[in-house]
Design a protein that fits this description.
Arc Repressor Mutant, subunit A, 6 helices, mainly alpha
């Protein structure tokens, strides 16, 4: 179990998205370069001090950026922030004129729950 914990710590949530996906998601949400870096720190599950250290800015500045991001994206927690980013990414991959590839390889076959969710009862 100890080995698994070490593996989890090494994983970076921000690496789930390609540079292109980050750029497009940030652009469509009108995020600044710095805001996008803050969001990536959140994806990496870094505390404010960790984000501040990575970006060489103060913890207070990170706090200010997070508050502005929460307002800008109409969220109130880090979890909601991550979900909002993922929601935007999925929206972009579903768009006919998107430069991003579909999330799943079954998109064109119509077998993807992300692209063709089941009808609600």
């Amino acid at each position: 179990m100890h080995g698994l914990g070490n593996t989890r710590r090494k994983l970076r949530g921000s690496s789930l998205l390609t540079d292109q996906a980050w750029t497009e998601t940030g652009r469509t949400l009108r995020l600044t370069k710095r805001e996008l870096q803050i969001v990536q720190g959140v994806f990496d599950n870094l505390p404010k001090t960790g984000i501040a250290g990575r970006l060489k800015i103060s913890e207070h500045t990170v706090h200010t950026h997070l508050n502005r991001l929460f307002k800008k994206l109409a969220v109130s927690t880090r979890t909601e922030l991550v979900l909002r980013i993922m929601e935007q990414l999925i929206t972009l991959t579903r768009s006919a004129n998107s430069t991003l590839p579909p999330i799943c390889r079954h998109h064109h076959a119509g077998a993807c729950f992300l692209h063709n969710p089941p009808a609600k009862p």
